[in-house]
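explain this.
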Amino acid sequence: MGSGCVFLAGAGPGDPGLATERAVECLRQADCVVYDRLANERLLAHARPDAERLYVGKEAGRHALRQEEINQLLVTKASEGKVVCRLKGGDPYVFGRGGEEAEACRAAGIPFVVVPGVTSAIAVPAYAGIPVTHRGVATSFAVVTGHEDPTKAQSGIRWEHLARGVDTLIFLMGVENLAQIVAQLRAHGRPAETPVALIRWGTLPRQETLVGTLDDIVAQVQQTGFRSPAVTVVGEVVRLREALRWFDTRPLFGLRVLVTRAREQASALVAQLEAQGAEAIEFPTIRLQPLAWEEDVAGYDWILFTSANGVRYFFERLRALGQDARAIGPARLGAIGPATAAALEGLSLRVDFVPDQFVAERVVEQFPEDPAGKRVLIPRARAAREVLPERLAERGARVRVLPVYENVPDTSAAEALRARLAEGGIDLVTFTSASTVRNLVEAIGAQALAGVPAACIGPITAEAARAAGLCVEFVAAEHTIPGLVQAIVAHTRPQASSLPSPAG
């Protein structure tokens, strides 16, 4: 679009998976991201590392910036020649004041593009098991602001038509004004027994739903201390919730799990935990850094990979050296674990050997031929257990360990994690390697983890956790990410017999 411009992009209702591809594209292009309270901060990971990030969130009684200041901020940043992504919760034009921001851009001569988002008005009820329309129950719905402009002399809502003229009513930002909303609906003919649902933090693992009727919902909110941000649904469709609940019935729903995997590796574990309903709190204890090497990798009988990262950095370095898989010649390939094997197969390389248990000791025990006299190359992390090369050497193999990457401690979020642990905001901590144990303890101290149960991917990791004084609750029988998630489900919900894969 030239130099300066503004993308008014909807971030969706909360679940980062509900942001559109177009919104993600805008984030990747942006020089500056201006984001709201209800825009999931995980979406900011799509922005460039050098992109400016500005928080302008609003909540009742506390605004980071007034709307007029936000409008001016967008104009100022775009006038500097920057591509600005204005990331707004839900849809920018559904009570998001996106129209005012677009008007400010137009008045200043700033080009802008509107990127619609999935509105919480429809998505949040769906995640609570409530369809806003349903054959034979509701053929119409209306989306209504629950928080009108306080400077208006009187309400602009036509309550006399709305109360009985629409089957399903959806109020956004209406918790603080719920008593007035209920009073207006009752005064204009909506029956007292009409079901009502309030859904807080909808589409997120911390989602809460409160169900009542127009007669008792205000009292329930006062008794439970139910707070915003929430979507209010009024209508007979609320009765469908018990039959259609799906999001908050998953095995790990509400479980707050700390993921300590390296930043580059966390996505698979996070995705699988969240697919089962958990809230995954990422704390990368390490980051992976590739190492440069000039090794001639030809002439080996076997190349044994101990991790998918070893595969990645080994072949990336070959490409950097102007080579490809042909450089390894006729060497046979071994992999510890299915993820490592899958990484090799993803490069169209056939794996000749995978042990039935994914630990170094089993590699030696089950090696498919006598290793005596065989030349074996092991690309791996710089710091790793020496059991595999030592045991192979004891059996007569000529072993060369090739460090292709190293683990570098990452303590950038240590203080925030200590605070969350102190508040009791973590139910379980996961460890996928001994190095994540060591790095987490070094970053925040073992005392911060006192009383928090740990789930470990395998016995070596569990041994390191116990040595650090941590409480190891259980160890995965299968030493893989899916095996770890299966173990967490079995421990949390023993009656859950399987792990269904979510659609999409």
